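A quick aside before the break. I want you to see a complete sequence-to-structure record at least once, exactly as it would be stored in a machine-readable document. Don't worry about memorizing anything.
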Amino acid sequence: MVKINTMNSKQAKQIPIEHFLNKLNYKPVKSSGNDLWYKSPLHEDNTPSFKVNKILNSWYDFGLGEGGSIIDLVCTMYNDDVSHALKRLSSDYISHSPVKHYETIWVDSVPKKSKLELKEVGKISEKALYCLLRDRCIDVDIAKKHLQQIYYSINNNEKLNYALALKNDVGGYEFKNALMKGCIGSKAITSINLEDGKDVAVFEGMMDFLAYLTHHKITDFQSSAIILNSTSMKDEGLKALNSKQFKKAYFFLDNDEMGKQCFEYLSQNIDYDFVDCSSIYDGFNDYNELVINLK
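That is the input. The structure line, written in tokens, reads:
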């Protein structure tokens, strides 16, 4: 059972990483724009190879080739899982430390000069992506049935990045790694097994869909599902909901204002029964956060 005074992931990610490092007596060696450079807290480091971006509130260790959010940092520093990392952060920050409100920065919303180019699509193989799935408490074998691994470049840089990816309905790839999430190609919903007479489940993102399958140990998903990939795709989601004669719709959208607005819009514009399932993960932002905290 999660204690009442334990932060959720969304709250924890509002803690400035530079403030967390300062509490541990790590000071930046230099700064460049919105980037702070440190001698790494994760390994012996003679030159500053650990970068914190104050806008994204993310870190990257060039010595290890790893990075992510403050939760990822705590997990790496203390060999914690996500639930223990949240408890560790809560003990220091629940009532008295300053927080900032960071907006999620999507890759497809960065300046136009940032060009993403898909280089390769294949099966999941990178160790860091397996770690990301484990940190999210997602069953790896289930994930492999629905996700792929992509390699992509940014601004024609020779260095390739990799990420977990879900193909959408127009051939684009919704992707996520430890540092960013976004879309390569045109953004769209992802529909699965849409057939007349079936129930349909609606999820906001790929991780919530996989968390649901993991939680219920569903290794061979046969029902219909729509993954919006963003609440901004609600019109496309509605078209899919009205494209078949479904028996009932089950909505697993986020417990935030955008999620609630999206649910109201979709549920009020279909002519069959529906259920708001967000009460299942009441107290958490989404289904994946529930599964993480059940561990």
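Two observations worth writing down. The chain has three domains: 9-93, 107-184, 190-294. Residues 107-184 form one domain. We'll return to this after the break.
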